[in-house]
Amino acid sequence: MLIRAFNYKQWADQRTLDAAQALATRDGAAAVAFICQQLNHMVIVEELFRARLLGETLPHQATNTAVVPPLEELGVRLARSNQWLAQFVADAREEVLQKQIPLRFMDGQPGRLSALEALFHIINHGTYHRGAIGHALDLAGAARPADTYTVYIHAAEPQRRLA
């Protein structure tokens, strides 16, 4: 299920990026700026958790940046993150997933999560921010992609629609 969840995340993120790109081609600068800020935050959090899962130095000191990268760069970083996450969960053994990771959250407070909990957070976090992006797309009068798990599973496995 974890592998499928990250395949779903990759699919949903791409649909969101495609909708943002479509909006960027018309007069939607304010909404695109908000979308880029949300995507920037999403990918920074994923990069932070990747470093934590690998026991590496954190690549960021905060969960957003003063200067937000352009949509194209965010799309590349998000795709890279999704590819790494999909490979990590495909290769992860149960003992790796259950391993407790001591960490310091960005608010400065210490904490501990299992690798599985960190991965669940990444899935949940992306869903939350795609919802905010969907609302921005609605307000801009743009097409909002359906990105629920059930839409994904029927796209990935159309035979499930058969009676």
Automatic annotation (TrEMBL):
Record's signal peptide: none
InterPro entries: DinB, DinB/YfiT-like
SUPFAM superfamilies: DinB/YfiT-like putative metalloenzymes
UniProtKB keywords: Metal-binding
Superkingdom field: Bacteria
Pfam families assigned: DinB
PANTHER family: PROTEIN DINB (PTHR37302:SF1), SLR1116 PROTEIN (PTHR37302)
Family designation: Belongs to the DinB family.
Protein name: Damage-inducible protein DinB
Species in which this protein is naturally found: Duganella qianjiadongensis
Native organism taxonomy: Bacteria, Pseudomonadati, Pseudomonadota, Betaproteobacteria, Burkholderiales
